[in-house]
Amino acid sequence: MPSPHVRPPLSRRGFLVASTGAAAALGLAAVPARAAGRPRPPFGRFGSPSAPLTPKTLYVDRGGRGDFTTVQAAVTATSGTGWTLVLAPGVYRETVALDATRTEATWIGASENPRDVVIVYDNAAGTPKPGGGTYGTTGSATTTVQGNGFTARWITFANDWLRADHPDIAGTQAVAIKVQGDRSAFTHCRFLGHQDTLYSDSMALGAFARHYYAHCHVEGDVDFVFGRATAVYDRCHFRTLNRTDLAAAPYGFVFAPSTAVANPRGYLVTRSRVSSEAPDDSYKLARPWVPGSDTTARPMLTVRDTHLGPGIDAVAPYTNMSETYPWQNQRFAEYRNTGPGAVISVPSNRPQLTAEEAESATGETYLGDWTPWKEGC
Asked: What span, in angstroms and rounded, lies between the C-alpha atoms of 314 and 344?
């Protein structure tokens, strides 16, 4: 994704300073070796290497109590369809890629608290690659998921690359996770980063991948939820970060969809909330991303039944990424939002759905025959 007009040298805070003390730096709960004087089973209620849930369940633990000590090693050991990984509490500092051949995979945070299980790395788009060149936005992703039918529960996906540590790097996009497969579902997960945190995309321009995020937490500053997938964000929390490096608003943008013109469904945010640690009115709700690889894109975002905090600029919540593609020509709409960031003072700046239009702005309509909320995701 393009960088903002000002490339800031500073950053809000470090997510991780090292693997030691990482839980505190990320705002995570500490992971004690013992709780209430008793040994804590590393895999909770999800079995163990000696008594796996299923023949296709593998266990990951940095401390060596599982089948593997890294997530990527466990992924590499799987092939085909239907594998489950159970992750013991810990900070897994690595990049992880689940390719398109590995389908119907499930990753479970064993403690059932996403603060306890963290997959994190610190590449940015402008980070030099071994052998030359830079990673680019896609290559910066800590985790990449391409397989269809992916499910994750109770896991934090993070990218802790910091602008302040790399003032010489202009490519400040740093993706926590890029999701491309169809039928990808995340529940009770966290996505932490700054710019381009959650890349909800598809495998190809003509592939209308469907994603579902429920009870998730996403935070960042610039375009931190972006891509061309058909994605439903249900009862999620979006948190905008403070910026000490900028003299004036906007500090950033929550959503930057890049929906293909042929796709009738883009991003739907429902029953959610947007909060901020930044000053009032310092963030835009969205701007459309029309990438150079698809100049016919017509970004689509509907935000409904959602609380918008004071960090959102209520007077002008949308802006352009490029003057060539004004936001007014895209598919942006709202419906029955509440909060100081949802106040309609300039109606032309806040397109609203009619009650009839809102009837089709639902998860059921967006996701079609896939109903992840009924499938125990």
From this structure: 7
